[in-house]
Amino acid sequence: MTTSPRPTLNKAAALVAIVVGLAAGSYGVASAASGSGSTSTTTTATNRPAAPPGASASNPWGNQRSDETPLTGDTLAKVQAAAAAKLGSGATVVRVETDADGHAAYEAHMLNADGTPATVYVDKSFSVVSVESR
Fold this sequence. Notes:
The chain has two helices and four strands. It has 134 residues and is α+β, with helices and mostly antiparallel strands. The chain is rod-shaped and about 100 Å long.
């Protein structure tokens, strides 16, 4: 029985090809993850949160969210009164609803007397928790 010599050259070439392939693939993944490449993007940081969907100059809060419910009855009246008292005379209520973001139980979207938008967060005992101005 005769045995042929092992093709060590083919195994070595295959090993080199695998190592080069892994290195190139790893580099490609790392480049994609880090964003390095031939294109460049300039960004400017701001302290403003991203505008909600449907936001516009006349509606800076965006559209009614499906996970928030408009208030009615006594609850509506009490939240409006608390929010209006907090912002003072000349403030206008735009929309009052439950708060799904966890700031408080309710939120009143309002316009200050000077026209700047504000959101007043009110808890279940109808006390103002905080005010977010834009």
